[in-house]
Amino acid sequence: MTRDVASSCKCALGQRLREISPGIAWIDGFSSYVKERSTNLVPGITPDLYEDEYRQGAGGELEWTSRNGKRCPPKINAVYSSSALVVNSFAAWKLHLPQLELCGSTRFSELHFEAKVPTHLKGTPPHLDFIAGTLNRTVVAAESKLTEYLRPHRAEFAPVYASRSWPSCIKGYVSIMRQLQDNPASFVHLDAAQLIKHAFGLASLAGGNDITLLYLFWEPVNRTAHPQFELHRQEAEQFAATVDGASVKFSWKSYPEIWHEWASSDHDWLKLHASQLLKRYAVKI
Question: What pTM was estimated for this model as a whole?
Fold first, then answer.
C-alpha cells in the first residue's frame, strides 16, 4: 500500500507538469525525467541561484549516474525530485533574503544549498538541503522530502556512532539513536536516523549560534484520505517532543502550509511565486 501511494504521488506530479507544460520534452526511456532541467523549475529560477552549490555536493543531483547497474539521468530532472522541490521553493529567496522568515527568525543574510556539516566522524559528512543564516547568528538548516518518506526504510548507524560520547545538550537526539539501534524500524516513515546525523553535525556549530533543524515535506491536497501522511506527521511530532530542549532545536512543516502562508504575503513577487508552486505541486491522488 505504501508503495502504491508513493507511485500515485509520482504519477500525479508527472501528470500535472504535462498539463501545465504540454510541449515539454522527456528523456527517452525515462518517462518521468525532463530533457531540459529548466523545464522542471518554476519561472524565475536560474542556474546561478543553485547550480554551483549542487555541483560541490555529494548527491550527484545534476549528473548522469549509474544506479542499480543502469545509466540514469540527473536526479533533479525527475518530476518528483526533492532537490527540484527545494530549489523551486527557496532559490528565489536568494534575491529577497531580508524578507525571508523561517522558524520565527528574520533578517537572513545568506542561504546555501547542499550545505555540509561536520560530525568529526569518518565518512561523508551530512548534507543539508539548505542552510540559511542571519546577521545575529541564527541558523536554520533544512532537510527536505518529497515522496521519499513513503518508502519503507530501516535506520542505520555506523559503529563509530555508538562509541562516541555525545554532549548532554543533544541528549534527546542520542536517546532516539539508542532506540533506533535497538529497533531500526521504530520509525516507519520519518527518516529519524538522517535527522539525528544532521543534528550531530549542527551541534558542532552551536557555539554562540541559535540553531534550528527544519524538516520540510510535501503532501498531496487530499492527504487526509491516506493514513500514511497522518502517520508520518505523528512520527515527526513524536521526534520533536523527544528532542525538545536540545541545543539544536527541531521544527517541522509541510510545503503546502508554507506556500499558503506565502500566498498571503504583502509582497507581490512572493504571492506570484507561491501561486506557481501551488500550480505545480498541489495535486490530488
Answer: 0.95
Euclidean distance between CA atoms 265 and 261, whole angstroms: 7
In the chain, how many domains are there? Answer: 1
Q: Which domain holds residue 166?
A: 2-281
pLDDT tens figures, 60-111: 899 999 888 899 999 999 999 999 999 999 999 999 999 999 999 999 999 9
Summarised one tens digit per residue, pLDDT across range 27-72 is: 999 999 999 999 999 999 999 999 999 999 878 899 999 888 899 9
Candidates 271, 250, 266, 254; CA nearest to 85 is 254
pLDDT of residue 44: 95
